[in-house]
Each structure stands twice: as C-alpha cells, then as structure tokens.
Amino acid sequence: MAAGRTARGCRVSWWADEWAALDFETTGLDPESDRIVSGAVVWTSRGVPVERRTWLADAGRQPIPADATAVHGIHERHAHRYGRPVGVVAEMIAAALAEAAIDGLPIVVANAPYDLTMHDRELARHFSFPLDTWAGSKPIHVLDPLLLDWALDQRREGRRRLVDLCEYYEVQHAGPHCADADAAAAAAVTYRIVGEYPGLRQMSLAQVHEAQVGWAVERAEARQAHKRRNGDPAAVVDGSWPLIPRQGVAS
C-alpha cells in the first residue's frame, strides 16, 4: 500500500473515504471496435490524488489515427515501442479495479458507458470473464460525475464535458486527454458534487449507484426526444449504464 493510502479496516464512509478513478485514452470513439492506448487508475482521498498507476498499451495491428494522436498525443510508433500488449494492460487495470471493489471503494469514471464498455470489450478479446466479475462477489460501484451533474442540476445551461465541470466546480485540471490527469480531475469534480448535495451523502454507495442507473435512462430519454424534435425522427439513445451489455466484439 502506497504512502497516503487508507489502511483496510479504517474506513469512515464512502464519501469521506478513499476512491479510485479510471480513465482511458483510445484509438477512437467506438468502444466496440476501437482500442485502449493508455489507461490510469488514480486513488484519491477527498478529491486529492494519493496514488497513481498508469499504463501505455500496444494494440498491435490496430492503428492510432492522426486525429486520435492529436487529442492525446500518443503516436503509434511510440505505443508499439514502449507499450505493453493491450490485453495485458486490460488485465492489469481489471485487477486494480477489483482491488478497489474488494476494499469497498467507489470507482469514479467520467462518462462511464464509454470507458467501462471500452475496457469490457478489451477483456472480451482476451478473457472469458466480463468486467463486472473480476472482483468476484464484490460489486463494482461507480460514480459518474457527468451523470451526477446532469441529474442534480438539470436546469443549468451549457456544455457538460469534464473540462466544463472542472471550470464550473472550480477544479484544477492538470491536462485534458491525459489518462491520469482526467481520472484525478473526475474524482475531484465528483467530490465537489457530493459535497454540494447532502442527499447523496445520506445514501449508501449501492443506493447512489442504483440511482444513477435510473438517471441514465432518464437522460437517454431526454436526449432521444431532443434529437427527434430536431431533425432526426428515428434517433435512438441507449440508456445503458455503467456499461453497454456485450453483443458482438470486434477482433
């Protein structure tokens, strides 16, 4: 256990205790076919990082397009030379999340259906077990700041990307589209949100997780209705959360 981490058996409450935060940088925006380029799990205490683990992944034949490199700064040649095989990275990150879940910690993931689905599909390519079984019987409870912010302050106008939430909640961001910086920022924003809404702190972690499942459906319905009112009458928005169930997985 790294210096600064909370010792097992000394837990206070889910919202005032240690959290783990996850983020990925990838080859593209489709979690069904794109691949992990880098990943980070950051442990935080009251929104402040106390331990960081980062990984660079080599997805082999999958190219890193120039537009993806322009976002996260990782070139294909660099990933091939210095990255670990992407399946190994996916396994190591799953083990880190399982460690956090077994400790009873929440997992903070901004836009969870993207990052967790991406991770789950990488695991599907290399292992038979889905992400939510890696911690055995221990549930993985997720906090998604993008969803929490939407559900608790629906009337606020403006964009709600992680960088926008950092500005609104006055959180310093060390650098967008760097996995460990994004994970740390997501945890800090989530801690601010929980601090502003006492009702969340009165709920158990499991109750907050289940509430987000319902809020994700409501948000999807609202987005779908908006799209259908604005020129796309056949629009369908998936409300799955925290990840999209497996169907087919691209090799």
In the CATH hierarchy, the third-tier topology is known as Nucleotidyltransferase, domain 5
Number of strands: 6
Strand order of the largest sheet: 4-3-2-1-5-6
Q: In angstroms, what is the radius of gyration? A: 18 Å
Unreliable runs, pLDDT <50, ≥5 residues?
none
The number of domains is 1
Helix tally equals: 9
Q: What is the ordering of alpha helices and beta strands? A: EEEHHEHEHEHHHHH
- Distance between the first and last residues' Cα: 36 Å
Main beta sheet: strand number and arrangement?
6 strands, mixed
Helical fraction equals: 40-55%
Write out the CATH superfamily name: Ribonuclease H-like superfamily/Ribonuclease H
Report the mean per-residue pLDDT as an integer: 94
Structural class of the helices, strands and pairings?
alpha/beta
Classify the beta-strand content into a percent band. Answer: 5-15%
CATH architecture: 2-Layer Sandwich
Report the principal-axis shape: globular
At the first level of CATH, what is the class?
A: Alpha Beta
